Structures are given as C-alpha cells and as structure tokens.
Amino acid sequence: MAVLFKKPQQEQLASFFNKDILNAAQFRLEDIETIMNTAGHYEQLLIDKKVIKDMEGKVMAALFFEPSTRTRLSFETAMLRLGGAVITVAESETNQISSTAKGETIQDAISVIDGYADVIVIRNPVTGTADRAAQAALHPVINGGDGSGQHPTQGLLDIYTIMKAKGRVEGLTIALVGDLKYGRTVHSLVDFFALYGCDLILASPEALKMPPEIVRNLRAGGINVKEIDSLKEAVADADVLYVTRVQKERFPIVAEYDQVKDLFIVDQDLLREAKEGMIILHPLPRVNEIALEVDSYPGALYFQQAHNGLFVRMAILALVTGSVL
Ligand code: CP
C-alpha cells in the first residue's frame, strides 16, 4: 500500500464534499488519484485491524431496484466498516419503493429519503435514474449502476485493481471483450482509460459492439481504439483483459441472446496466446465467459477486484460526506 498510494491531502479531500458520483466523465485525473489514495489509506487501516469511526453517526440509504451482490454488499460493508449505519427498502426485489408503486415519482421518493440519510446509493434498471435522484436530493447521490448507462464506482475499483497489479495505468493496452453494447461497466471504464491515454482494443461479436458514439468520442479525444471480433487477437496484445458477461436481461428478444452467449469464452487454450504478465479482470457475476480452469491462472484477479470494491467504496462514501479523518 505504502509504495503505491500517498496520504491524501486536505485540499484534495475537500474538493469532493457533497459531490454526486454519477458518471465517469465527471472525473479528472487528480480526482481519481484522490480516490485511489483514500482507498489505499482505508485498505491499510483495515490490514492493520484498526477500528474506523470516520462515519460514526452518519446514515447511508441503499436503494437497489435491480439485483446486486457486489455493489450493494460492498457499499453496505463500507459504511459499516466506516462506523456508519445503513437503511434500505424491503421491497427492492419488486424494483419499487412502496411509494412509487402507489404512483409517487422517484423525485418525490428521493426528496423524502434525503431527509433520513447523509448519502444515497441507487441502482435502477432505467438509465438516467441516478441523475434524476441527484437533482431531487440535497445529500450526495452515488450511481450504483443505471440500466446500460454507467457504473462509475465499478470503473474506479477496476482502476484501483490495475494500479495494485501493474503499478500504473498509463501506457497500458487494455482489451475490453464480450458485451460492449449493454455492459454499463465498460461504458464508464473507457472514459477512465482515456484519461490515462491507454490504447484500447474492443473485441466483441458484431451484435454486441460498443455504441458508435462512445467510440467516436474516444477517437476524437486522440485515443487509439481498435475494434475487432477476435478474442485471440485481443489476448495477444493486451496488458489487461477485461471480460464482460453477455447481459441477458437487457436483450429485447431472448433468441438474440442465445445467438451470442457462447461466442467469447476465455479458457486455458486461449491464454497460451497471452502476453507475458497479462491480468484478467471481470466485474462479475460470471456466467460461462471465463472457464473455471482460468481461476488458477496467476493473473486472474477478478475475485481480488471484487474485494477491492470495499476500499474504493469506503473512500467514495467518506469523501462525498466530508468524513475522512
Ligand atoms: N459488478 C457488479 O456490479 O456486480 P453486482 O451486480 O453484483 O453489484
């Protein structure tokens, strides 16, 4: 930790106070550095078995209207590890707050919950919901994933994982593979990689290509982007292989999902083509896109990646509520 991450400075910390975390485009490199340093600070405190009270007396509302294991539990654990408390809604599996089921708008519901909590984390299947919640709330709102839109905290924990594994992000070649159309994680991640000037390989079946406006924006910003449909080619050049699940739940027609679900599988045979030292990331959950045999590959870091979500989300919660002591 000490080697990689510096102690965050007071003026850097202050710049986050009361900020919403909605999308990757809102971040500058120095903001990411502050989050990484703060995450490193908290990881070290937890390694040292310290009891942390930075958010004692504060409350986080966890509003998850789509299934989540990692994002929800890591945010809730983050809040508890920081000494704070969590409130949530019992009806999340119905994708509704009870009041919205009765016809209340999300804005009204958020205005109410804003009076109970110091920070709100929201996941919703509709792209743009986190933005609408942020407009209604006085406290900071954190986007925990909105439809096929953005998932910025996942992107930040991915950057943290790469920094820990490779010591840097600058100058790396990153291959993003799989469902680049519906996967919101990669939509956030490419903005972060663009800040670091990474070369990008986008490898997907034709039907799951990255939305063209995202590719256009990257190229307009001077980023070297190669779009291919070969997993083998992606692996040969990548320092980081970022694998994504085909997002069955976002396909309008199930038959279209069935046509593409088994096209990109990372297995040991494929890894024989890999560049020395390549690491494999995946936001999880995985279905079949990474064979189980790959878990023993030394660069398979997806479970560590999920664990890193705790430190990064501790940093984000503490930063936006002005709680880092
Ligand atoms: N990576 C991710 O967002 O996982 P969950 O859907 O379990 O939160």
Describe the structure.
The chain is an alpha/beta fold. The protein has two domains: 10-150 and 307-320, Rossmann fold; 152-306, Rossmann fold, CATH 3.40.50.1370. The protein is built from 13 helices and nine strands. The chain has helices at residues 10-14, 29-47, 70-81, 98-101, 106-113, 129-136, 152-166, 184-195, 212-220, 231-237, 254-260, 268-271, 302-320; strands spanning 59-64, 85-88, 119-124, 141-146, 173-177, 199-203, 225-228, 240-243, 279-281. It has a five-stranded parallel sheet with strand order 7-6-5-8-9, sandwiched between helices. Strand 5, helix 8 and strand 6 (199-203) form a beta-alpha-beta unit. The longest helix is centred in the N-terminal third of the chain and has 19 residues, at 29-47. It is globular, with a radius of gyration of 19 Å. It starts with 9 loop residues before the first helix and ends in a 5-residue tail after the last helix. The model has no long low-confidence stretch (mean pLDDT 92). Bound molecules: phosphoric acid mono(formamide)ester. Phosphoric acid mono(formamide)ester binds next to helix 3. Keywords: Pyrimidine biosynthesis, Transferase. Heterododecamer (2C3:3R2) of six catalytic PyrB chains organized as two trimers (C3), and six regulatory PyrI chains organized as three dimers (R2). Pathway: Pyrimidine metabolism; UMP biosynthesis via de novo pathway; (S)-dihydroorotate from bicarbonate: step 2/3. InterPro entries: Asp/Orn_carbamoyltranf_P-bd, Asp/Orn_carbamoylTrfase, Asp/Orn_carbamoylTrfase_sf, Asp_carbamoyltransf, Asp_carbamoyltransf_Asp/Orn-bd.
